[in-house]
Amino acid sequence: MTEELNLALSDLEAALPDGVTMHPELFRQATFIERAIGNLNVAILIGCVLVTLILIAFLFQWRTVAISLTAIPLSLLGAILVLRWFGASLNAMTLGGLAIALGAVVDDAIVDVENVVRRLLENRRRTEPTPAFQVVLDASLEVRSAIVLASFIVILIFLPVFFLEGLAGTLFRSMGLAYVAAILVSLLVALTVTPAMCLLLLRGVGDREELEPPQVRLLRWQYERTLPLILRLPRTTVMLAAIVLVASLSAIPFLGGEFLPEFRESNLVVLMAGKPDTSLVETMRIGRLVAKRLKQVEGVVSVAQQAGRADLSEDTFGPNISEVWVVLDNQHDYERTLAEMRETLEDIPGFDFQAKQFLRERIDEVLTGAASDIVIRAVGSDLAKLRLQAGQLALAIRDVDGVQDLRIEQQVDVPQIEVLLRPRDASRFGFSVAELNETIQTLLRGRTVGQVYEDDRVFDVVVRAHPSLRSDPTQLGELLVDSPAHEKLPLRAVASIGMIDAPNVINRERGSRRILVTCNAEGRDVAGVMRDIQARIDRRGIDLPAGYHLEYGGEYQARQAAQQRLVLLSIAALVGIFMLLYLDFQSIRLSLLGMLSVPLACVGGIVAVVLTGGDVSLGSLVGFVTVFGIAVRNGILLISHYHHLRQVEGMDFGRDLIIRGATERLSPILMTAFTTGLALLPLVILGHRPGHEIEYPMAIVILGGLVSSTFLSLVLLPVLYQGAGRAGVGVSVSVCRR
């Protein structure tokens, strides 16, 4: 659309009068969108390169690498087709979903390829080798149950995102659709394309020493030496893991919170609000002064002011309020430029100023109708008392750390003409109250009585009294009106007319009068600032009359609502995951072992959040939900392989079984963790670029959760499985279904 508008503006430019210049780049939102999509594309490409390097490092041969890498283009292209089928476009959110899923789409193929290679090598060492077709088929069927179960668990844990409401649901549903579609397509590829390619390319597989690079052999050798020591110290291992888990969970109350992170866009909106009686001329004069000062700030590219109100405008404020649009240099320091802008506007009298990013300002308006991060509503019946309470609130919280752009909603008494009909006098002269009201409305507000056509434009013809009559109660009272008896009577004969002080505006929500106290959170998280504000209000003991109360809104309220819904739905999803594991393992203890990766993933996720600033946004919460499903995959792979060794290959339970199962699954577990983690690394390293704002906190949490869950699963899970096996759990379980 922007390109078409630019073409239309180019055609109009030739017809502009002399002295009129057009600036099509002044407030171009498409610039931010183009930068965001470009940055996400770069992150996906870098992620693909990193995934390829990991596969080369672990698989070593071009054939196994090629088979595994095939899952990436097939999964991403298949996901794009699914998106088009659902009517979704390739935007910043859907591309973000594909970027998050990039490393996970190769996981199923990696597990299948690694198992096929290992079984082909074992088959070659037999005196009577089995045909390659049967070996590939058996190897694929061996891990089929674990692959399908793990993929469906990854999808199930992500389902709560689809049930988020409001703005959060609108943002994350498209990302969730892209992510789930990519995982489903990758599962289909692992079940069909991957085994076929293994049969075609891996028939003549060489010796294990030729296939495994030195670093993989070194990792396996070191793990085989370390794991027995760990198995001999089960209580110490479990106790240390519990201490780490409790320590990380104890940091949760100290984490900050915000609804969405700051968007790295270069378009700012400075809202300037004067007193209610400020004229449009005065607003424009101050606007020119503001523009002149802002242009002198280093990093500001252009400034423009929007004042007044057009027909059918989305903004309904009066001439005392206007918006100043500011475009910043993309390469300049954003925080310093914003601070200098605020400082240069502080000493302009008669106006309040609030500077915000365009997208953030629109998001706040959608959430609460006020363009601020934090909104406090004083609700009651008497406007004078509400204004008093609002003043006390603002005085109490103005010095709270992080409070910026503190404002009280403009609600003041202004002089107005009051016309009160006297029904008895009106009926004495034969007037109908309804007709008389209609006449007064015409005099004061006007009435459209026709239209005038000039060329191709249409103008309404409005009849109303002269401005001097409408502003002077005495002259208005002398205005003659026609009675039904065809007499001309002054309006004062049937109505009382005078000047009164009345509110300039009366705002209501849910049927109750209210006044807003708003502010932004600067330099701190929204949740932390709101907690301090609530504590300050409670400590000051602001006395609210009976029937009056305070309500807290803005981004804080939206985050709380989305967080509660996401947590409840995630608990339901975790219950569903446990049921899936129980159906497969037929054991409560083993199902709980499979769920062990969830708290283990929390450890790394929380540590990663603390190390990167300590703020938990809605994207971070979605990241925790995502990493739970990804982390459970490792536990499923390990437990399923243990049962295969016991039930299919006939190994007796013992330390040898645990060590063999863990070492044979070491390579695929590390590969899936590394590919998923390194695919997210570009989003973490380039996290402060436009387009990465929502994906960056998700990637931080997922990366940290993968590190902790993978490490602790390879160490703690064998220890706990050893304890469960000694208790006689799962002896008759068969996980390998064909």
Jot down its keywords:
3 domains, alpha+beta, Multidrug efflux transporter AcrB TolC docking domain, DN and DC subdomains, disordered C terminus, Alpha-Beta Plaits, five-stranded antiparallel beta sheet, four-stranded antiparallel beta sheet, 14% strand, 59% helix, single chain
Q: What does this protein structure show overall?
A:
The protein has 738 residues and is an alpha+beta fold. The chain has 3 domains: 27-250 and 586-726, Multidrug efflux transporter AcrB transmembrane domain (Multidrug efflux transporter AcrB transmembrane fold), CATH 1.20.1640.10; 263-372, Alpha-Beta Plaits (2-Layer Sandwich); 414-503, Multidrug efflux transporter AcrB TolC docking domain, DN and DC subdomains, CATH 3.30.2090.10. Helices cover 59% and strands 14% of the residues. It contains 26 helices and 17 strands. Strands 6, 7, 14, 15 and 16 form a 5-stranded antiparallel beta sheet that branches. Strand 14 (508-509) and strand 15 form a beta hairpin. Helix 2 (29-59) runs antiparallel to helix 3 (62-69), helix 7 runs antiparallel to helix 24 and helix 10 packs across helix 25. The relative contact order is 0.13. The model is unreliable at 729-738 (pLDDT under 50).
